[in-house]
Design a protein that fits this description.
By secondary structure, this protein is mainly beta. The protein is 4% helix and 66% strand. The protein folds into two domains: 21-80 and 130-227, Porin (Beta Barrel); 83-125, no CATH class.
């Protein structure tokens, strides 16, 4: 019996002491409800909503750090700009005129003006722009990989394309992007985990258009990962 037990123990695969995958596949959603001049962007009050997938590959692993490649693909990258609806009502003769203008960099402020022959109303609305993006250059560093709960640092560089120029009409529909973030990854098993993080996210056309206000967002992202 002792010999059989020893043989079974030798035949059983060794269990890794690390919560780390060689290849990682992920799906994620990210949102930012505002933008401001954090470092380089000047366009304020812009929102982002992203849905995407990611691939990771382990480079180096020890007791301290799990260093991985991480690339992301964004089939859905939505950006929202504040828009002013301008309404002019003339009283003699009676004429009603409406048109939209995109807020440049400062927040939209509603207003109403009344004059002898006409009224002028500014109404703040929003306009979402559809886009897609890719971040092929990226790295992730998970610390304490022998624990289920791991703090990490992550960063990417890439580009995005939108159906119209963002964040203003004088900008470009093609932009470069980069992000830096940190958070925690909780492993539910050796192969599956959930990640929550905060990122500084920047969008800029690198002065390839007439204007380049840039967008700085604080992005919150939740990611579900699996692999082996």
């Amino acid at each position: 019996m002792t010999g059989a037990a020893t043989a079974l123990a030798q035949a059983a695969p060794a269990v890794s002491p690390y919560y780390a995958r060689t290849n990682t596949f992920s799906v994620f959603g990210a949102y930012s409800g505002d933008s401001s001049h954090i470092f380089m962007g000047d366009a304020e009050n812009r929102k982002l909503l992203d849905f995407g997938v990611a691939y990771g590959r382990k480079f180096f692993l020890n007791l301290i750090v799990n260093w991985q490649y991480n690339g992301e693909l964004l089939p859905v990258a939505l950006e929202s700009d504040p828009v002013v609806l301008n309404t002019i009502n003339l009283t003699g003769p009676t004429v009603h005129i409406e048109y939209e203008t995109t807020v440049q960099t400062t927040p939209c402020v509603p207003a109403f003006y009344s004059f002898y022959t006409y009224t002028y109303t500014f109404t703040c609305t929003r306009r979402w722009t559809m886009g897609e993006g890719i971040s092929p250059v990226g790295f992730q560093w998970n610390f304490r990989p022998h624990n289920k709960l791991q703090p990490f640092f992550i960063g990417h560089g890439g580009c995005m394309h939108s159906t119209r120029p963002i964040p203003i009409p004088q900008a470009d529909s093609f932009n470069f992007t980069f992000d830096l973030g940190t958070g925690f990854e909780l492993y539910r098993s050796q192969t599956r985990s959930v990640r929550a993080e905060y990122r500084y996210h920047h969008i800029s056309n690198h002065n390839m258009a007439n204007m380049n206000p840039g967008i700085d967002n604080g992005l919150f992202q939740v990611t579900y990962s699996f692999g082996r």
